[in-house]
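User: Here's a chain of 254 residues. Predict its fold as tokens.
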Amino acid sequence: MQLLIDIGNSRLKWATVVTGAIAVRGAVAHGGTNIGDALAHEWRALPPVRRIHVASVAPLAFDTEIERCARDRFGIDAEFLRSPAEALGIRNAYAEPQRFGIDRFLGLAAVHATAARAQVLVGVGTAMALDALDADGTHLGGWILPAPALMRESVLARTARVGVADGTLVDFADNTADGLYSGALHAARGAVERFVANTARELGTWPAVVLTGGGADEIAPLLPGAELRADLVIEGLALWARAAESPDFARDAR
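Assistant: Prediction complete.
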């Protein structure tokens, strides 16, 4: 059995892979949490694990804590993945491949494995990452911007006298709460629409749009036709875990 761990900025998701298929899943919110105790509870019933694959965008100190938890519970070292130039059918656009977020790479691998087509992956977490992919798995590149929630938090943190409650999405706001909420969502929508148009012009075909991440539900109503996919990083980790069983994978994932 292999253990897959996806560490985001606020949540840790995990799953086990048995004979190539995802078997058990779990999640822990790690903001302010004693992650060691939480994971000991989450993993208490798991049988022995022979490999642990980790995709992390958390601070290095957090990775160190995960390493300790893995050794304490399973007696093996965790393998922290870095984005390669090419693997799992994806060719990374970054000149320095390892600087491309591993969560973005694995998400692209997962959507490409599902459907080899022109597509844009929109990951909505703390930040919002947009990545374009052609039908052959070539990554064109992407954008990174604040997700709508972070946009709102930034305005509230830097603006005096704007203590507002949750707003409602409207075309023309007549109060600050609705104005802030609607402005952030429409800004995100505008970025996605422009990026999709750029991708269509580059590829000569209109791409599918795939939304993922904790904030995806918030912008989905503004993007008719977009597909919602949960846990793409875990799906990509499962692809990596299966491929890593091949003795040639370390050479091929360059």
